[in-house]
User: What shape does this take?
Amino acid sequence: MKPRIAIDGPAGAGKSTVARAVARQLGLAYLDTGAMYRAITVAALRENIDLEDGDALGRLTRRLQLDIQSGEDNQNVIFLDGENVSEAIRLPVVSRGVSYVARCPEVRDVMVDKQRQIGARGGTVMDGRDIGTNVMPDAEYKFYLTASLGERARRRLAELTAKGETLELPQMISEISARDKIDSERECAPLKAADDAIHIDTTEMTTEEVISTIVHTVNGQ
Ligand code: DC
Assistant: This one.
């Protein structure tokens, strides 16, 4: 079976870009699990569901049809009841709400089931918060990416500015640290490095350096 690779870490550590490139270079599939929680958040916001109402979020999640396909450049293309929501899931309003949705056990049960089914096929790079600890605890390789809060906020800001959003760095720093707090303090599968994960502090590294560190580790070089 081809290897399973778990890449976890806080928001803005560069997981998605790195995981996608690693998957491409190693000929593996890529799953962005954060995108799945974001898609549920899009639906919840559209239906005006209270993001603190776990029962309602659970019912919504069980009712929705969530499909993930591999698109251009190995990007995940996310369909919600047949509609492509790949752009909507990146809106700032979704980023602000998603941690509330992702901390809800009823939502996580459904998402984690789906992620495990995909992981069971092998040959997958998955990025998220609980992949090494909970979704694929027996993955062959586990990485935990971090970077300083300021650097993570700068990276997220650069992504959003490129899309025409106008946000200031102090606001981005406070949004990211609020998300980190909810993600790491929640009861259900919080953000946490697996005991056997390889830690990579990416603050001073280029994306290419992070990618090649992971690829070389997997290739045993
Ligand atoms: O990686 P991201 O920013 O797209 O993640 C969106 C949210 O989903 C974030 O608040 C953390 C949460 N998440 C999670 O709880 N578990 C995962 N496996 C992936 C993401």
